[in-house]
Structure formats: structure tokens, C-alpha cells
């Protein structure tokens, strides 16, 4: 058998894209509640109020003015508010996951549902909601895999404290962790701290109002300290906890064998491996410290930060893998295509999805090898998948053969990494196992699920769930522990 007997087959979601119920049951506002939908050609916009009370909007890449606060405009549509409504459908959805044979289910806890302002005020109804969800999962023998924070922050912390730029946010986050660790210590074993930590740079994700490198890396330092403290605390509360980190892994190939292109690829890859180095090895890599020096970035640390980072290293590396990119020393020589949160370089050897993401199954094996060779701790693929437009036929069926084809090739690549390369892979949770809102574009049109949800880009639809062709295919993959991919 290729995959270990207890391999964690499942699926992945995130509260801000799936849960909905944005003000139900005492939940507070989160930054993501103030970001509109968009598309491939139209960016999502953050709506906010300036200090003088003016209502304005900016893209996520732009910084919000200092002192500006998130604002929900009653005339606009915000996809997170209902999302695909896990809040009211969790029993039905979990029954469908159980029917597919899921061994685990990755979801995130909404910080603003537990602590509406992000401070030390607790919302019992929020805790009770996740109790009900975990109980429902455990009823079917499905192991919850919990992302503590996926791409958002309570709006109050963002606007009153400047989010992760403020050291106090570390303390509030640890209070949140302590609350959920203690409450769910007998229900949840697998945790990961911050989703795609290498992509955190905007107000919506980390609540910062200035996103130049000085502010961004100070906020990132706070995230590292918070993650390490969470690992230490979690292990104290329950030594059986497995607490991982989560990075978006996009391997970059040199565009040519010109050593300058090889160096460019090395630098690109370092950009993301830096986040893994700190959380797995517990220290900042030398190249980053040199870069800080050159860029005159000064990180404010507290006396015991280095010790905390060293002590709070993670148990496993969780990562998303969708695509690869390429690097060239001469950017004028390359063409750009779409990509996860940032454009990627067109690779003539690879095809792309409708959203321009390269499709590169061998890149997954390469990533697994690189990560395992370098870090030697268990790996968990916590996101992978193919965003596509699905067509519902007259009889209600959906033939998503393109998705099956994508998964087939990626699971075959995982199998090679395990059987030929000896990688210690503990699980696989394809992204958006049930249709949900796209993080990048805010669309529903870009679907990833094995389960279809009737909802369009403007919030119209019955929210009814139905099984796609890939549902039955994945069920068979799980039943045979990945042996039968046809
Ligand atoms: C990752 C995120 C997810 C998810 C996925 C797909 O960046 O962790 O939240 O959405 O990518 O991206 P998109 O939704 O933009 O297609």
C-alpha cells in the first residue's frame, strides 16, 4: 500500500468563504466582511470610512489610510455574509462528507465568532456553534483539522489597534487560542496557526493600515511569535495536539539554465521558505537578516522572542499547492499569467486553468521532495484543487471530468513522492471540497467542490447542495486508500 493506513483523506474550507452567518449568534464583524466580490478582471474592493466620515474604497493591494475603519455599505454585496452558509447547513454538509468517506475535515474558526471584538470578551454562542460542528464530525469518525486563523481578523482589532502591527494583538490572539484549546481539547487534535502566512500583507488579512515592508515584516514577526506561543501553549494544554504551520507553496523553476535565472529562482523560493524556516527551525535565516539590513528594516523584538521562536516550533508543515511558476533574471523576457494571490510567470511547458493558474502535477512531487529533504518533518497537503466553471445539465448532473483529471494526476504525483522518494505525508485535503466563495476574486463562478452549491456571484440561488461526478470518484479514491484513481 502506498499511503499510510491512517492517511487523512478529506477536504478543506475556511470560515470567511464558507460559513456565512456573519452577524448570527453574536459574531462580531471581521475585516473580510467589508470586502466586495470581484472577478478575473475586476478586483475585490475594501469599503471603509475615513477619519472625516467619508465612505471610500481601495483594492486589497492598496493601504487603507491610517485611522480609517472598515465599513459595510448596505447597498453593496459582500460574499462572506452568507458565503455558502455552512452555519445553517453543517449537518447536511457533514453527512455528505461522511458519505464520501472523509477521514478528516479542515475548517477554520472565525475569531470574531468566539471573541466578537478580538479582545478578551467571549461569545458563548460562538463556542457552542463549533462544539456542535465538532460533535457532528466526530459522530461520523471524521477528525477535525482546524486552522486557527484563515485570512481575517476581528474588525475592532484592525481598526482600533492597527491589527498585527500592534504587539497587543499577540496577547489577544493567545487568549483566543487558550479559549479554543481548552474548550475543544478532547475534540480536536490537528491544528494549524495561520493560513498561507507568506501571503499575509493586507488590511483584510492582518488588519494593518500601512503595508510597506517595515510595517509588513513587523506584523509578520508578531505572527511568528503568536504562532510559536500558540504551539507552546497548545502542547501544555494537551500534549497530544499536533500543531502545524501553513504556507502557500509555489515552487519556482529557473526560466533557463542561465545561472542568473537559477539565482532568481532561488531567491523566489527563499521568499516562501523563509516562513517555513522560522516556524520549523525557530530562527530567522541569515539571508533574511542581511536583506533587512540592506532594506533598513528594523524589527522590534521583546527580550524573550528568540527563545519563544526556538521553543514553539511546529509539529508538521501544512501547505497549499495549486501551481508552479518560473523565475528569470530579466523580467522583461517573461509573460505573466494569473496565480494564487499574485501573478505567476508563464511556463511554455504547462497548461493553465481559465483563471490562468498553471497545472503542474509533477510540481507537487517536486514540492514534497524539496520540503521533506529540507525539513524532515511530516507534511500535510491542506489545499490543492482546480477552480473551474461547472455546468449543471438539465437532469441536474455535473460532469466535472476536468477536475477528476486534475486530482488524478496530483494524487499520482503524491503517491510517487511517498513510494519512490520516502516522503512522510500524513494527509490530503483538497480545497473547497464543497463550493465556496473564491478568496482571490470573491466569485462563486470559480468552483472547486465535489459538492455543488446553488449560488451565483450576486447572492442568488437556493443554496441547495448536489453531488458532482467527482464526488463519486473521490469516494472511490478514499475507499481504496488512493490505490484506485481510475
Ligand atoms: C488559497 C487560500 C484559500 C483558497 C484558495 C483558492 O490561497 O488559502 O482560501 O481560496 O487559495 O484560491 P481562490 O479562491 O482565489 O481560487
UniProtKB/TrEMBL annotation:
Q: What is stated as this protein's family in its record?
A: Belongs to the glycosyl hydrolase 1 family.
Keyword annotations from UniProtKB, A to Z: Glycosidase, Hydrolase
Cite the Pfam families for this sequence: Glyco_hydro_1
What GO annotations for molecular function exist for this entry? beta-glucosidase activity
Q: What is this protein called?
A: Glycosyl hydrolase
Q: Which PROSITE patterns match?
A: GLYCOSYL_HYDROL_F1_1, GLYCOSYL_HYDROL_F1_2
Q: Which GO terms describe its cellular component?
A: cytosol
Q: Can you tell me which residues form the catalytic site?
A: 383 (nucleophile)
Specify the signal sequence span: none
GO BP terms? carbohydrate catabolic process
PANTHER family named in the record:
6-PHOSPHO-BETA-GLUCOSIDASE, GLYCOSYL HYDROLASE
Amino acid at each position: 500500500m502506498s499511503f499510510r493506513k491512517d492517511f487523512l483523506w478529506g477536504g478543506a474550507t475556511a470560515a470567511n468563504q464558507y460559513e456565512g452567518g456573519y452577524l448570527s449568534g453574536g459574531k462580531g464583524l471581521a475585516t473580510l466582511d467589508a470586502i466586495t466580490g470581484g472577478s478575473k478582471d475586476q478586483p475585490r474592493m475594501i469599503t471603509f470610512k475615513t477619519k472625516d466620515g467619508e465612505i471610500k474604497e481601495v483594492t486589497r493591494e492598496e493601504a487603507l489610510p491610517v485611522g480609517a475603519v472598515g465599513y459595510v455599505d448596505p447597498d453593496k454585496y459582500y460574499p462572506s455574509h452568507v458565503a455558502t452558509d455552512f452555519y445553517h447547513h453543517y449537518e447536511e454538509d457533514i453527512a455528505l462528507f461522511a458519505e464520501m468517506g472523509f477521514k478528516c475535515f479542515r475548517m477554520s474558526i472565525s475569531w470574531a465568532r468566539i471573541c466578537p471584538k478580538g479582545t478578551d470578551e467571549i461569545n458563548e454562542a460562538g463556542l457552542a456553534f463549533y462544539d456542535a460542528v465538532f460533535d457532528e464530525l466526530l459522530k461520523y469518525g471524521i477528525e477535525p483539522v482546524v486552522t486557527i486563523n484563515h485570512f481575517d481578523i476581528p474588525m475592532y482589532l484592525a481598526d482600533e489597534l492597527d491589527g498585527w502591527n500592534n504587539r497587543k494583538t499577540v496577547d489577544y490572539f493567545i487568549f483566543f487560542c487558550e479559549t479554543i484549546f481548552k474548550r475543544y481539547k478532547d475534540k480536536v487534535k490537528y491544528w494549524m496557526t495561520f493560513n498561507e502566512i507568506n501571503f499575509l500583507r493586507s488590511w483584510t488579512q492582518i488588519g494593518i493600515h500601512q503595508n510597506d515592508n517595515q510595517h509588513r515584516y513587523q506584523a509578520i514577526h508578531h505572527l511568528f511569535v503568536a504562532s510559536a506561543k500558540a504551539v507552546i501553549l497548545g502542547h501544555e494544554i494537551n500534549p497530544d495536539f499536533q500543531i502545524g504551520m501553513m504556507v502557500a507553496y509555489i515552487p519556482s523553476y529557473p526560466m533557463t539554465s542561465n545561472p542568473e535565472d537559477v539565482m532568481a529562482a532561488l531567491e523566489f523560493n527563499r521568499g516562501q521558505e523563509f516562513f517555513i524556516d522560522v516556524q520549523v527551525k525557530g530562527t530567522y535565516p541569515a539571508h533574511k537578516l542581511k536583506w533587512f539590513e540592506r532594506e533598513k528594516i528594523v524589527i522590534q523584538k521583546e527580550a524573550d522572542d528568540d527563545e519563544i521562536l526556538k521553543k514553539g516550533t511546529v509539529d508538521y508543515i501544512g501547505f497549499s499547492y495549486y501551481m508552479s511558476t518560473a523565475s528569470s533574471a530579466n523580467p522583461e523576457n517573461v509573460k505573466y499569467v494569473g496565480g494564487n494571490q499574485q501573478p505567476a510567470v508563464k511556463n511554455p511547458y504547462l497548461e493553465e486553468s481559465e483563471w490562468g493558474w498553471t497545472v503542474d502535477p509533477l510540481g507537487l512531487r517536486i514540492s514534497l521532495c524539496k520540503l521533506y529533504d529540507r525539513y524532515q518533518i511530516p507534511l500535510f497537503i491542506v489545499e490543492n484543487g482546480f477552480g473551474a466553471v461547472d455546468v449543471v445539465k438539465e437532469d441536474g448532473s455535473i460532469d466535472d471530468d476536468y477536475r477528476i483529471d486534475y486530482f488524478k494526476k496530483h494524487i499520482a504525483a503524491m503517491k510517487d513522492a511517498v513510494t519512490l522518494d520516502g516522503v512522510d505525508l500524513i494527509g490530503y485535503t483538497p480545497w473547497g471540497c464543497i463550493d465556496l466563495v473564491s478568496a482571490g476574486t470573491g466569485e462563486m463562478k470559480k468552483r472547486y467542490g465535489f459538492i455543488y452549491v446553488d449560488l451565483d456571484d450576486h447572492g442568488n440561488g437556493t443554496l441547495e447542495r448536489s453531488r458532482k461526478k467527482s464526488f463519486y470518484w473521490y469516494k472511490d479514491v478514499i475507499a481504496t486508500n488512493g490505490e484506485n484513481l481510475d
